[in-house]
Specification:
D-Maltodextrin-Binding Protein, domain 2; alpha/beta; 13 strands; 11 helices; 5-stranded mixed beta sheet; globular
Length: about 300
C-alpha cells in the first residue's frame, strides 16, 4: 500500500507524540502543559519578588526537570483562592494562610521554611522609641497598622494576644484602637511606623532588622509586646497534585539551601532553606485561627 505524503506526515506525527508520551509520562494528566504554577505571597515589593521568584523557579525546574512558572498574588487571600480553584499547583504560604488553604482548599504542606536557623518565629508590636509608648495598654486610642487580615504575625497572633489581655473586645480591633490600617506588606508597615503615619505596627520578630538597614532608623524602633512561637511558613501544594510530582518537588526543595542557594533564598524571603513539614505542625495556628474566627476574604 502506498501512502500519500499527508498520510505519512500524520503517521509520523502520531509516532512522535506516542514516543513523547512514553518518554515524559509525567506530562500526562499530572500538571498543565506549561508545567507547574508557583504563586508567591506578596509580603514585599511585588516587582522585586517576581524577579527573584523566577530565578527560584529556574532552580526548582533544574532539580525536577519540570517547567515552573511564577506569579505574585495580589494579596494573601488570593493565594488561598489560587490553591482552591487549582490555578496554582504550589504556593508560598504563611502559617495562617496554610491553615486556611488546608481548610478551604484541601491544600497540603510540602516543606517548612528555615529562617535564621529556626523553623518558628514570633510576632511583635513595634512603636517608635520617642513616642513614649511602653505597654500594650498605652496603645488605647492610638493608630495601629496590621499587615493583612490573613497574616500570621501581622494580624492573627497579635490580635489573639490583645484579646487574651482583655484589650480588644468582640474580635474588633477598633474596640481598642482609634484607627486600624492594613499595610499590605511588612516592609510598607515598618516604613509607615518609622515615618509617623501610625503609632504601632504588628509584624514578625525580625522585621526591624530585615527592613531597616540604617542603624539610626533601626534604633528608633522598639517593641513592647511579643507573642508565643509561631511555626514557620512554607510551600503548600494544591489538592489533587500527583503524588509522584509532590514527592519530586519536595525532594528538590529540600536540596535548595545554603550555601549554594544562600543569596537567592535571602533575596526571596530572607530564608535559609527548607525542612520537612507535617500538617500537625500547624495545629497551634489552627487554635489561634479558631479563636479569632479568621476566614479568607
Amino acid at each position: 500500500m502506498v501512502h500519500s505524503p499527508p498520510m505519512i506526515a500524520r503517521a509520523l506525527t502520531f509516532v512522535v507524540l506516542c514516543a513523547l508520551a512514553l518518554s515524559f509520562p509525567a506530562l500526562s494528566g499530572v500538571y498543565a502543559a506549561d508545567g507547574l504554577h508557583l504563586v508567591l505571597t506578596p509580603s514585599q515589593k511585588p516587582t522585586d519578588l517576581l524577579a527573584t521568584g523566577e530565578e527560584f523557579a529556574r532552580a526548582l525546574m533544574k532539580l525536577t526537570a519540570i517547567p515552573v512558572r511564577v506569579t505574585v498574588a495580589s494579596d494573601y487571600a488570593a493565594v488561598i483562592e489560587a490553591l482552591r480553584n487549582r490555578t496554582a499547583d504550589l504556593a508560598f504560604v504563611h502559617p495562617v494562610g496554610y491553615v486556611l488553604a488546608s481548610r478551604e482548599a484541601k491544600a497540603t504542606i510540602v516543606v517548612r521554611n528555615l529562617w535564621h536557623g529556626k523553623s518558628s518565629f514570633t510576632s511583635r508590636i513595634y512603636v517608635r522609641r520617642e513616642s513614649g509608648l511602653k505597654t500594650l495598654e498605652d496603645l488605647r486610642g492610638k493608630t495601629m497598622a496590621f499587615i493583612d487580615p490573613a497574616s500570621s504575625s501581622g494580624y492573627t497572633y497579635p490580635m489573639v494576644l490583645l484579646i487574651q489581655r482583655g484589650l480588644v473586645k468582640d474580635r474588633d480591633p477598633k474596640s481598642f484602637f482609634r484607627e486600624v490600617l492594613f499595610a499590605g506588606a511588612h516592609d510598607a508597615g515598618m516604613r509607615a511606623l518609622l515615618n509617623g503615619h501610625v503609632d504601632a505596627l504588628a509584624s514578625f520578630d525580625m522585621a526591624r532588622e530585615q527592613y531597616l538597614k540604617d542603624p539610626a532608623e533601626r534604633d528608633r524602633i522598639i517593641y513592647i509586646a511579643e507573642t508565643p512561637e509561631i511555626p514557620e511558613a512554607g510551600i503548600a501544594a494544591r489538592a489533587g497534585l500527583d503524588p509522584a510530582t509532590f514527592a519530586k518537588v519536595r525532594e528538590a526543595l529540600l536540596q535548595i539551601r545554603a550555601p549554594a542557594y544562600a543569596e537567592l533564598l535571602r533575596r526571596l524571603y530572607e530564608i535559609d532553606g527548607f525542612a520537612p513539614a507535617d500538617d500537625r505542625d500547624y495545629d497551634p495556628v489552627r487554635a489561634a485561627v479558631e479563636l479569632l474566627g479568621v476566614k479568607p476574604r
